[in-house]
Specification:
about 220 residues; mainly alpha; globular
């Protein structure tokens, strides 16, 4: 096992856990916010397990995803606004709990947790199917078009997974206001996909033909 990669992953994992936990519990003003504990569990426990699997079976992919650095100016802007979206959504969720604003019933949180884990499974399958997958928009050396499995249904199954994940999060937290904020993810990924497909059409052989075969981008028969 690559010890340097292991500790790099552990540090980022702990930092993410502490940041999300702090945003939720500090604004909630209480550790009794059970929906926050539920989100932390379904978010970080599978993440830890997936990290261990990737470290063992595909360390290069894990290293690439940990050392992400976006080079496209438009994508840096999308990442910036995505960060603001998450910050606002988590803060609003905590404030919703603290001040008793419109809160969704508990069964919605549990149903959303099931949806979240389903989306996590889709995310894992996409990582398994596409060894070229990167968190940045780029065409890698010797990259080929992947058109089987989920990629035979939609062109961007990773965004399908993240859309489900991100829209499920505020529902798990029981906050309708956070859900409305997270809807901003739809125009953000639409802009990212547009830029990504321009890059792929220019640099990846066969991608234009692939677009003709697989017509839907994110959601079958819808988008």
């Amino acid at each position: 096992m690559d010890r340097e990669l292991f500790w790099q992953a552990i540090k980022k994992f702990i930092a993410g856990l502490l940041i999300v936990g702090a945003l939720l519990f500090l604004t909630a003003g209480s550790f009794s916010y059970w929906q926050a504990w539920l989100l932390l569990a379904i978010l970080f426990i599978p993440m830890f397990g997936a990290g261990l699997v990737m470290m063992k079976k595909c360390p290069d992919l894990l290293r690439k995803r940990l050392n992400v650095k976006e080079t496209e100016d438009e994508q840096r802007l999308v990442i910036f606004f995505s960060g603001l979206m998450f910050l606002d959504a988590f803060l609003l969720a905590g404030l919703t709990y603290r001040y008793g604003w419109i809160r969704l019933p508990g069964w919605v949180s549990w149903l959303a947790a099931v949806l979240f884990l389903l989306a996590y499974a889709i995310y894992a399958e996409v990582l398994r199917e596409n060894a070229y997958l990167s968190r940045t928009i780029e065409v890698q050396e010797n990259q080929k078009v992947i058109d089987t499995g989920l990629y035979g249904i939609v062109r961007h199954p990773m965004y399908m997974a993240t859309l489900l994940l991100f829209l499920a999060m505020p529902l798990v937290l029981g906050s309708i206001f956070s859900f409305l904020v997270m809807l901003c993810y739809i125009p953000l990924i639409a802009r990212r996909i547009r830029n990504e497909e321009q890059v792929l059409e220019k640099g990846l052989a066969g991608y234009t033909e692939y677009k003709k075969r697989v017509k839907y981008k994110v959601i079958p028969r819808i988008w």
